[in-house]
Structure formats: structure tokens, C-alpha cells
Write a structure and sequence with these properties.
Number of helices: 16
Helix content: 40-55%
CATH architecture of the largest domain: 3-Layer(aba) Sandwich
Distance between the termini: 51 Å
Shape: globular
Order of helices and strands: EHEHEHEHEHEEHEHEHEHEHHHHHHH
Strand content: 5-15%
CATH superfamily of the largest domain: Glycosyl transferase family 10, C-terminal domain
Radius of gyration: 23 Å
CATH class of the largest domain: Alpha Beta
Largest sheet: 6 strands, parallel
CATH topology of the largest domain: Rossmann fold
């Protein structure tokens, strides 16, 4: 009989199914969305999840932590489970907060090999997890598109694409702006299978890199992207902007890498101008991708790590002030309304517990801000609810 796993997602996303399917090969896997817990405060959500865990005898809990501050160290600590795991796909600008949250867990799973090393550097047991499917091997079509780009269009990426086109290279651009949805998966797979080369850009898309401890410093990071694995599994070559993650797992001749527009054009012209060279490169690249992203093989090492009886634990010296502020705010703001004022104030017991080992100054600051948050956000939430009701 398989052991039971519960995956706690923040809300429904397309890749959630891939995570559930990966665990389902070895475990009896269930999942839930925090977004479904409407009109519930911090304590009520914790209690309902713990009741579910107890009723179904679930031992392993997996937490989706990316860009969701509610699932932090103190939330994970309250959830009952023999083994706890965090999963991240966007650690590049979240590592600062994730590396603290991870101290409540036994294992870290990240889709970026560089992120895995950063966790290991701090003493965590970390492994790479693959979100992409690996069942595209039979996709094979006539390669009628020279270069394909898909994904978000930023100013930097647009500059690259315009330069490449001006250099006489035919580029099919199906990128999209902002929060607009990309192509349906079947259409995207069809386009990739018809392409000779997929172009991958890695710079983070925001105007600056998120920094919790101080003001913004860096404009971007070079981020490991899923276009590489998706292209390779469909049988199409990829040429990529640099990222440290891909440098760890690919050799120079397995994945061609560029920093500048000029370097990109030189690589593309060389490959497109020599059919035999492109075929050799495509074979080497796709073979490596199949080897790295074979779901059954890659998850086996994760399964072995989970099943170990002992896991390394990282003990923090203390929680930084900015992390305590975030945690306290998430606790107080959950389902906050003036009509729920008494229930909201009762959450102060949790606040007191998370700041008990902090300095007097930090205690005063956290408590003062929490009181202000109760009345300010309670007022805002009440007015929003009233307007929504009036529109009906």
C-alpha cells in the first residue's frame, strides 16, 4: 500500500497537475488549494487542513511556496505531518524568503539546478524536480520554421528579436504581452515540432529583482527556463541566453549559449547554414534532455530522499525582522473584516508566539503594525464588500 501525500497549492495553475502526477507514481496523492478556504482565518485554515490530514492518515505534506507569503515557516510549522517538503519553480528572486521557510521542512525540491545548489550551500537537502511532461518523443513533423520564440515579450526580448530579424534570420514570434495567456498547449507543441530551433531568453521579466531585506539593487537575474526541456522533449533544438542553472547540467556542445544579440545571431546563422551540423546538435541536445527529464528516473532520487528515515535540519539563529513582519501581516489579514474584529484580534496569540524570542523593539514594532493593519485593512475590506453587494 502506497504512503499518502498531500500537496498544498496556493491556487490552481496549469503546472499543478504535473506536480501531482510526479508524486502519484510513487504515492497516493491528494491536493488542495488555499484559495478555496474562503472566509477562513489563519487558525481555521490550519485546523481544517490538520483535520483532513488526520482523517486520511496522511504523512507527507508538500507546500507550494512561490509568491505566496501565507505559506511561510509558521504556517508550515502548524501543519501536522511526519515529513514536510517545499516545492519551488521561481526561486531566483524568492530564495531570500524560501531559504528561511525551508527550515520548517525536511526536503527542498526546485526546478532550477542552480537553486538546488544554493539550498545545499546552506545545509538543506535539496533535489531538482521536473515540471515538464516527458511523453512527447513521438512528436515529429516537417521542420518548416527556422527560429521560434514563445513566451512573454519584454522590451529586452523585443530588442533581441528585432535585431535577429534585421540580420536576415526568419523568426516566428508568438510571444505575448503582460498577463495575456499564451498559446494553447496543443498549438504550442505543434509549432515547436515544426521548428528547427527554439530561442530561449532567461533574463527575469520585472524591472528590478525583488529584495526583501533592502531596496532593489539588480535589474534582472539570469533565470533557468522550461523552454529548454519542453523543446528538447518535442525533438527540437534550443539556443539559449545564459543562465547558471543550465551551465550546471549542460556541456557547451549540448546547449548553445549567448549573452549578446551579436553572439545569438552568430550561433543561429552557423546552425541554420549547415544542415548536418544542425542535425548533430539537435540529436545531442535532445538526447541530453531526455536523459535529464525522464520523469520516472528523475523522481526516483526524490522518492529515495523522501523515504530516508533521517533528514538534515537547518537551524536558524533568528528570524529577521522583515520575515516576521510578512508572517504577522499574513496571519492578521486573512479574512479580515470589521465584522470579524473579535476573531481577528484572537489571532494575536499566534503573533505573540512568533515574536516571543525577538528583541523588545521588534516586538513593539510588529504588534503596533499588526494593530494598524487590523483597522486599516479591515476598513478597506468592509468597504469593498459593501460596494460589491451594492452592485448586485
Amino acid at each position: 500500500m502506497k504512503n499518502k501525500v498531500l500537496v498544498i497549492f496556493k491556487y490552481s495553475r496549469a503546472w499543478n497537475t504535473d506536480v501531482v502526477n510526479a508524486f502519484s507514481k510513487y504515492y497516493d496523492t491528494e491536493y488542495l488549494y488555499i484559495s478555496d478556504y474562503v472566509n477562513k482565518n489563519f487558525v481555521e485554515i490550519v485546523n481544517e487542513i490538520n483535520n483532513l490530514i488526520k482523517s486520511k492518515n496522511i504523512e507527507i505534506i508538500v507546500f507550494d511556496v512561490d509568491y505566496f507569503k501565507f505559506i511561510n515557516f509558521f504556517f508550515i510549522e502548524k501543519i501536522n505531518g511526519k515529513k514536510k517538503i517545499i516545492v519551488t519553480g521561481d526561486d531566483f528572486d524568492q530564495h531570500e524568503i524560501h531559504s528561511i521557510t525551508a527550515s520548517a521542512c525536511d526536503l527542498v525540491l526546485s526546478s532550477d539546478p542552480f537553486s538546488v545548489l544554493k539550498f545545499k550551500e546552506k545545509g538543506y537537502e535539496a533535489h531538482m524536480i521536473n515540471y515538464e511532461k516527458s511523453d512527447f518523443k513521438n512528436v515529429s513533423k516537417q521542420k518548416e520554421i527556422d527560429v521560434l520564440f514563445f513566451g512573454h515579450l519584454t522590451f529586452d526580448r523585443t530588442q533581441f528579436l528585432e535585431y535577429i530579424s534585421k540580420e536576415g534570420i526568419s523568426v516566428k514570434n508568438v510571444g505575448h504581452q503582460g498577463h495575456v495567456e499564451g498559446l494553447p498547449q496543443d498549438d504550442l507543441i505543434d509549432l515547436i515540432s515544426k521548428s528547427k530551433i527554439v530561442l530561449n531568453f532567461t533574463k527575469s521579466r520585472t524591472t528590478s529583482v525583488l529584495n526583501y531585506a533592502s531596496e532593489s539593487i539588480y535589474r534582472f537575474y539570469y533565470q533557468f527556463k522550461g523552454r529548454i526541456s519542453l523543446s528538447g522533449m518535442i525533438g527540437t533544438a534550443c539556443v539559449s541566453e545564459y543562465s547558471p542553472g543550465q551551465e550546471i547540467i549542460f556541456k557547451d556542445d549540448e546547449l548553445k549559449t549567448f549573452f549578446t544579440k551579436e553572439e545569438c545571431v552568430l550561433i543561429l546563422k552557423k546552425l541554420l547554414g549547415d544542415k548536418q551540423l544542425l542535425e548533430q546538435y539537435t540529436k545531442k541536445f535532445t538526447t541530453k534532455v531526455y536523459e535529464l527529464w525522464d520523469n520516472k528516473k528523475s523522481f526516483k532520487s526524490i522518492y529515495n530522499a523522501i523515504e530516508k528515515s533521517n533528514h538534515r535540519k537547518v537551524e536558524l539563529i533568528k528570524f529577521p525582522y522583515w520575515y516576521l513582519r510578512i508572517a504577522a501581516k499574513q496571519i492578521m489579514l486573512r479574512n479580515i473584516k470589521l465584522s470579524n474584529l473579535i476573531k481577528t484580534i484572537s489571532q494575536f496569540n499566534i503573533i505573540f508566539s512568533i515574536i516571543k524570542n525577538s528583541s523588545l523593539l521588534i516586538k513593539i514594532l510588529i504588534i503596533s503594525e499588526s494593530i494598524i493593519n487590523i483597522f486599516w485593512y479591515g476598513l478597506v475590506s468592509t468597504f469593498k464588500s459593501k460596494k460589491k453587494y451594492e452592485k448586485k
